[in-house]
Design a protein that fits this description.
heterodimer, A: Arc Repressor Mutant, subunit A, globular, B: mainly alpha, two-stranded antiparallel sheet
Amino acid sequence: MAEDELLQGLIADLRRGTLVLAVLSSLNRPKYGYSLLQETRGIRIEANTLYPLLRRLESQGLLQSQWDTAENRPRKYYALNDRGRTLCARLREEWRSMVREMENMLEGEEGL
Amino acid sequence: MNEMMERYIYDVTRRLPEKERGEVGRELEAGINDMLPDNPGEQDVIAALTTLGEPRILAERYRQKARYLISPAMFDPYISVLKVVAPVVAGVFIVLALLTGERTMGSVPYAHFQRVVQIFAQATEAALAGAMQAAFWVTLVFAIAGRRGYKAKPWTVADLPRPRDQKGVKIPRSSTVTGLILTVFFTGLIVIMLLRDEWFLVFANNSEIIPLFSPAARLRLIPFIIIQGSLSFAVSALKLYWARWNLPLCIVNAAYTAFWLGVTVHILHWPDLFSAEMIAFTDTLAGRLNTVPHITAEGIKTGFAVLLAAAAAIEIGTSAWKTWKGMRTPA
């Protein structure tokens, strides 16, 4: 039981680091919060994490937002701005090199 | 909007800065609506709100800066200052309370025991009040300093504690602080009891009340008690400062211990120390107890002096041993 809890905590730590990149790389086209939730289901991001995160990324100057009130349900659409696009590209590179390094490390360990 | 949703959004946004409340409220409303099916029922709303979780936690995530009264960077100095200031202010409050209490209670005809209880109650109350006052003001100063963006200077290797600070047997801070408080308390108490004749240790022989000290000796004792208390306070302050046994502290402590032993033995040999009634009482007591006919006031004095000398020897010996142990151990 304690092992399980510990493992869940460690997995949550791992996942936390991927959230920003996951969200940024999904926002090449404008999306609203709930649609993004559906899209990032694979990495299990929670609504109560995503909504504040979008707001934070906007205040950090990486996203732009716009309200769409034409529909029955008003929705706030977020998308990358130029700065966000540049930073996202650099993050993506960083991620790929990290994954390569990690893969090398993990394979080396497994070979032992 | 559904009433429960409205309450939820209010509970989140009320914890946020005013200028963000409107926008976050709108975002939340849109987000929750998206989580609901068309024509949602009460259960759907409950499920959506439960998924979003506790409003306090959600608000914390929206708030981008952590909120605290004392910043983590200043927490250690805050605790250190509090640990020194609170007991000192508590001590000052005790002395003030005893002095004012002495004046106001002088006219109240309490029995002796009740008076002593009253003094303890007053002193405890004053100590608590003093500690709370100190805690409040220290907290306020640190909170304001933190809010005004005071930052401790960046760490450098020069800030590392010196090796000699880590040498030596540690003196627990709690025991030193307790010592400080007790010194202030008992010095104040004994001086006041000496000033008020009838408060000081009385022996009841049937209905007769016998004062322990003679009136002349009683008043002569006061400066000695004050000097003893002040020296004890100073030694405790040094212990608090150094926090470990070292040679200077050991010498100071030994000198102080020898001093109070000398003074006490000297006082015990004042011919007029005990009241005439007390001496007469011990003599009759000795006369009555035929089995131990040698119990006299002189005998009690000598026995007491021997006990004190033994206590002093133990104190000096222990501190010397602890100092030697610390000096012997490599840093």
